[in-house]
Design a protein that fits this description.
42% strand; single chain; mainly beta; globular; 0% helix; 76 residues
Amino acid sequence: MTSTHATACPHCGWPDGGEPFQVLSRHTTATGRTEWTRCGCGSLQVRVVDGCGTRVVSRSGPASGSAPARSGSASR
C-alpha cells in the first residue's frame, strides 16, 4: 500500500468522499478511528477519521479481476 494525498481513487477516479465503498472494519484510536474500506473498483483503503475529517491515508491497487478503471477515455 502507498500513502496518498489524492482526493480520488487513482485507479478508477471515484472521489474518496463518494459512495459506494464497503467498510471492512473500524478501530477506535486515541484521536478518532481508523477504517479499512474497499473502493467500488476493489482498491483496499485505510481511512483516518478524526477532528480534521475523513481522509484516505493508504491504498492498494484494485484486486485482480475487479472492475476496469473509470476514465474519460476507453482503450480500443
